[in-house]
């Protein structure tokens, strides 16, 4: 902003001004910065440093230029008039959603970059986003009555809450967050007095339009999610606790994170042209939640009624509750899931994380088209009491040779009998629990890279050959396998030959083990 002060000074003096030397400015210049009067035109060894002003928006919400600047809402005084500030020049030191760092000039209606690089516009439009959400509600009419707005109103402790409907919308210069929280969803813990039905995060695009970038949807009556394909700018999707049978996310090219939980009827997840997808979590489908019942054992009929920890529905196998006059019936754990396939993962070439939990019918996974994958978790075994000793997953074959960047692998209670990790040369963390692996069919990376190895309760694991991994290991846990005494002695020799007896004797987790001399 300093250049404006100098300009004002020059105008007040009613003369041309040079800054940096006593030489006169050129005839056409009201203000000139120079050190010398070199006739060759090189008249300075230094330049003008513009003020660093971090922008949060290229357009002005509420016709107030202050709101385009980080922290501008805290600047006292009247609105900064848009027209009167036309020509204002700054250096923006931060990357916006639209353009790179660089010099910007306020045109009177938006900040225009000088030599900046503009990001690719998000597909679709604000109108299309609104139409898609509206269609989603029309497709799921039973959801609408359960969509009151809600404001969290915590009671005197983390486990005591006041239930009271209210507004829940937050707006900044760059985004609007709108949360609808239903009184038929409860959670117990610090921060909220209810559970989201929807949470929408709208962000401004390069033109200033609000676009839906994140959507959290939690409701037991969602049966049709096809309208979500109209959300072309959607980046994060959380969709929980519903009876959907198929979720088709193909064509959502901006989609980066998908989190699915509690969809116990889901049979298929379909992708296609999702190049930005980096994380997919198909999470615990271990409980049917909040089916409406007809009998109420505990009644909280009025807004503001107190709910204490003794009434926590998760502390019993089933309970009936009535919140604000609506009755709900809570069912215990249910692990009879139906997901059998995730289609077209090859069309998500940048996928970095894949987590599949308690999908016991899931039996096939093709990861050949996902060379960027760094984390893979496939975990089963949830029981009706919440433990991990229930149903075994059906997945048997897990080829990972096409995933050279894999760093973390977690397998629990599947039907994997053989595993070749010899080509996974970035693999540092391995956890294998309750698998059917035969030791002779377990191959580790061909170079020492594994730093953490945990293998427990693998009933067929009678032989374990760590090979060169003994040199890289920082933690090793081998509890409750069936490794023979002869093989344990062979392991001791591996560590002894490597000069690592101290590690074997003091850092290897094993109920009973021979000493390394």
Describe the structure in your own words.
With 517 residues, this protein is mainly beta. Helix content is 9%, strand content 24%. The chain has four helices and 30 strands. A 14-stranded mixed β-sheet has the order 8-9-10-11-12-14-16-22-23-24-26-28-29-30. Strands 3-4-5 form a three-stranded antiparallel β-sheet, with no helix packed on it. The longest helix is centred in the first third of the chain and has 14 residues. The chain is flat, with a radius of gyration of 31 Å. About 18% of the residues have low confidence.
Largest sheet: 14 strands, mixed
**Residue fraction in strands:** 15-25%
Count of alpha/pi helices: 4
Instruction: Indicate the percent of residues in helices.
Output: under 10%
Structural class given helices, strands, pairing?
mainly beta
Average pLDDT value?
Answer: 78
- Please tally the β strands and state the result: 30
Strand order of the largest sheet: 8-9-10-11-12-14-16-22-23-24-26-28-29-30
Q: Which ranges are low-confidence, i.e. pLDDT below 50, for 5 or more consecutive residues?
A: 6-11, 145-167, 182-195, 285-335
Rg is 31 Å
- Net shape: flat
What is the straight-line distance between the termini? 73 Å
């Amino acid at each position: 902003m300093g250049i404006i002060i100098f300009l004002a000074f020059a105008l007040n003096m009613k003369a041309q001004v040079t800054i940096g030397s006593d030489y006169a400015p050129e005839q056409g210049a009201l203000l000139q910065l120079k050190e010398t009067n070199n006739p060759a035109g090189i008249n300075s060894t230094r330049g003008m440093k513009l003020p660093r002003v971090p922008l949060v928006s290229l357009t002005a919400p509420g016709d107030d230029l202050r709101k385009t600047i980080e922290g501008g809402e805290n600047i006292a005084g009247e609105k900064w008039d848009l027209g009167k500030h036309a020509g204002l020049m700054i250096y923006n030191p931060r990357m916006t959603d639209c353009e790179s760092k660089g010099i910007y000039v306020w045109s009177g209606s938006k900040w225009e970059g000088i030599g900046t690089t503009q990001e690719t516009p998000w597909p679709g439009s604000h109108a299309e986003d609104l139409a898609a959400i509206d269609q989603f509600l029309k497709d799921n009419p039973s959801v609408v009555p359960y969509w009151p707005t809600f404001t969290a109103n915590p009671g005197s402790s983390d486990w005591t809450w006041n239930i009271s409907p209210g507004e829940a919308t937050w707006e900044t210069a760059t985004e609007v967050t709108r949360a609808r929280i239903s009184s038929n969803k409860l959670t117990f813990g610090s921060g909220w007095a209810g559970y989201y039905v929807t949470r929408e995060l709208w962000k401004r695009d390069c033109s200033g339009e609000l676009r839906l970038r994140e959507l959290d949807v939690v409701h037991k009556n969602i049966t049709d999610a096809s309208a979500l394909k109209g959300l072309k700018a959607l980046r994060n999707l959380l969709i929980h606790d519903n009876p959907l049978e198929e979720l088709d996310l193909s064509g959502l090219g901006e989609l980066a994170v998908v989190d699915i939980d509690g969809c116990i009827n889901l049979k298929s997840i379909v992708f296609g042209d999702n190049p930005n997808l980096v994380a997919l979590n198909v999470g615990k489908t271990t409980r049917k939640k909040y089916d409406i019942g007809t009998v109420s054992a505990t009644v909280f009929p009025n807004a503001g009624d107190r709910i204490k920890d003794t009434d926590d529905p998760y502390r019993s196998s089933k309970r009936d509750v009535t919140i604000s006059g609506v009755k709900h019936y809570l069912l215990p754990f249910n692990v009879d899931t139906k997901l059998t396939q995730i289609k077209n993962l090859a069309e998500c070439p940048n996928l970095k994380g894949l987590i599949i939990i308690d999908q016991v019918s899931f039996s096939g996974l093709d990861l050949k088209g996902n060379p960027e994958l760094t984390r893979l978790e496939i975990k089963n075994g949830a029981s009706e009491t919440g433990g991990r000793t229930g149903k075994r997953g059906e997945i048997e074959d897990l080829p990972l040779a096409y995933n050279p960047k894999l760093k973390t692998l977690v397998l629990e209670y599947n039907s994997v009998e053989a595993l070749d990790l010899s080509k996974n040369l970035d693999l540092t963390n391995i956890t294998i629990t309750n698998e059917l692996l035969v030791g002779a069919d377990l191959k580790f990376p061909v170079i020492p890279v594994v730093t953490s190895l945990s293998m427990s309760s693998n009933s067929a694991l009678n032989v374990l050959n760590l090979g060169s991994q003994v040199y890289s290991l920082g933690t090793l846990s081998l509890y409750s396998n069936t490794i023979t005494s002869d093989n344990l002695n062979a392991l001791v020799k591996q560590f002894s030959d490597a000069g690592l007896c101290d590690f074997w004797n003091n850092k290897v987790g094993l109920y009973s083990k021979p000493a390394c001399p």
